[in-house]
Amino acid sequence: QVQLVESGGGLVQPGGSLRLSCAASGSGFSINVMGWYRQAPGKQRELVARMGSGGTRNYAESVKGRFTISRDNAENTIYLQMNKLTPEDTAVYYCTASPSLGAHPGSWGQGTQVTVSS
To answer: Residue 31: pLDDT above 90?
Structure first.
């Protein structure tokens, strides 16, 4: 069982930046793809970004050009650099891991709160 531990959430003003990190305890095929989902109050959970171990990246349209996902395969860690944050980015952000881009995430982190407010 893969364990995922997120860090880096917090409160930021509109237009600001935050960087999320997620460290996976396991390795191998189960973390071939790692990514981030988010859930805002009253809304469904949605994919934000994900990245394969080979470098393939997918982004939600709403974050393209503002968020960047990256990973350190040697450390089994992924990052989400979030720039130009808006109040609509306020949500709990969850780190995920799955064996392939076509698979639903098999592992989830506990979530980290991101609040964008003045």
So the answer is: no
